[in-house]
Amino acid sequence: MIESMNLAILVGSLLIAVAVFTSLFSTRFGAPLLLVFLILGLIAGEDGLGIRFDNGRVAYFIGSIALAIILFESGFETKLSSFRTAALPALTLATAGVLITAGIVGLSAWLFFRWTWVQSFLLGTIVASTDAAAVFFLLRVGGISLRDRVRSSLEVESGSNDPMAIFLTIALVGVASAASVSAESEAVLSLVRSFFIQIGLGTIFGLVGGYVIVRIVNRVELEPALYPIVVLAMALALFAATGMLQASGFLAVYVAGLICGNAHLKQILALRRFLQGMSWLAQIAMFLTLGLLATPTAFGDVLVPALLTAFVLIFLARPIAVWLCLAPFGFSRNETAFVAWVGLRGAVSILLAILPMIGGVPHGQAMFNVAFIVVLCSLVLQGWTIGPVARWLRLVVPARYGPVDRIELELPGKGDHEVVAYRVGAESAVGRGRRIPRWARPSLILRHGRSLRYETAGPLEIGDQVYIVTATENVRLLDQLFARPAESADDSALFGDFVLAPNARMADLAAVYGFVLPREAETQTAAGLLKSALDGNIEEGDRVACGPVDLIVRRLNDDDEVAEVGLALERREGPRKLPLFQNRREIMEYLRERRIRKTAARAAALAAAVTTLPVEDEGEGQKGR
């Protein structure tokens, strides 16, 4: 027994270590790292190196704990401002979007597999949700800089739609396992009732649990190394207790993570690093376990219909669901298309596909195999192309500055100041001789192993490590001083040739550059025109064409108001105009124009009919009288 235990520890630890080192391969070749983890599990499995693992209950247990950790860390890393920005569209995608996607995929599964309606829609719910681990990894680690609203919508959706899919899958497994039609109808009614209970109580328990975690951490004095452990333990306890009370534990831990990550917590920097490491470990463990559970030699029986299901999901179900959900919120066609494309399926879908097997649902093994193939197609096709698609749709926001070599240190208490340490790089503004503002003067400088005071150190040198105590809101400004240049085109091409004050009058600009303004724009300022043209959804780098020039949002202040306007004399190529994914405003304009055209056509037809009426000859009329 001891030998088998040691063998299991040896194999597990080696698999995790190899999975970590494959990140070098993923970074070099652009492969989605989670796909590499999944393939590594397949290689180590029964059809590869011969490791036999077929216990679905153990796999679901491991996957559930891993997913709870991932969701807590996802909520912890989500800023409350981002949640407020994207709450309505993201939650619409997480609820109505999941239902629409499940319905379309379920219909296709009924056509391709000829299963019962319940079994078909069960497969639809299994693959309906996007994967938080895959989306968060590709957006945060992949180096893609997107508009805040698009990025926030994707992150909040991926973190909040798993509970919906999990609830629907568990409920439909119960319906599919029912012994009779009457039992099925009772299960459907129970599904409707329990939906509101699970989602409502899950949200409430998450809010209360997050508040309790924050209060306990801030009031109890512990060894610094114990704070991350107790936070994760309380988060998992919340997950389990909420599930025991018949509510959604996954939703509860996500909401609790959102509360904790946006509160003042002791040792929050150490906690953030610990949770990031645990999230990576959870992703590796979940993908490896699910890869080991799969048997690729059994995929042949369902390969063709599974590929057709993946095609329907990627190219029909997800785009239709995203378009219907985002149309009322003013997303542009390109933004809607990108959100539709970043609908990655991952370990959650495979994890949910275990439930029909252990629940005794007919075709349960086939559902697992189909879900596995769909996930592989999604990670390969969508995961490998997110960057190119974002650039093709011209949704990548230009970075104002590049990477920063920064270290964060924590001050005791809950003050609004931070200690940050920067290493002076040769290409940074400071390294090129830029003076540090008075409010940012260092408290300590490390140079060649010696500690120096700022007053006696002289000018900063390349390689110095600089420690600065500053207000939290100033850290972003310091990043710009110590950052390397952004790896993009020159500043003038991205943000304009000239800088204008936000209150510059458009009438004066039109007079200088000789173009005609629409009447409603003559009295507007440059900032006002940008705000009205962009429907208030403003981010740095946004452009609005105005005659022969472009107005550009160069900088926003802390209230997200335009603080600097750029003027570009050379017109930059505008965004691509897709023929699909019109939003509510475009649909209403189209309907209004169509109504105007119909009215004009009817008026023209009436005028033509009047001109063709026979006119009585005046002379003949007098003669008759």
UniProtKB/TrEMBL annotation:
The chain crosses the membrane at residues 7-25, 31-51, 58-76, 88-113, 120-144, 164-183, 195-214, 226-259, 280-299, 305-326, 338-358, 370-390. Residues 17-392 form the Cation/H+ exchanger transmembrane domain. InterPro entries: Cation/H_exchanger_TM (IPR006153), Na+/solute_symporter_sf (IPR038770). It is found in: Cell membrane. Pfam families: Na_H_Exchanger (PF00999). Keywords: Antiport, Cell membrane, Ion transport, Membrane, Transmembrane, Transmembrane helix, Transport. It is a multi-pass membrane protein. Its main location: membrane. PANTHER family: K(+)_H(+) ANTIPORTER NHAP2, NA(+)/H(+) ANTIPORTER 1. This is Cell volume regulation protein A.
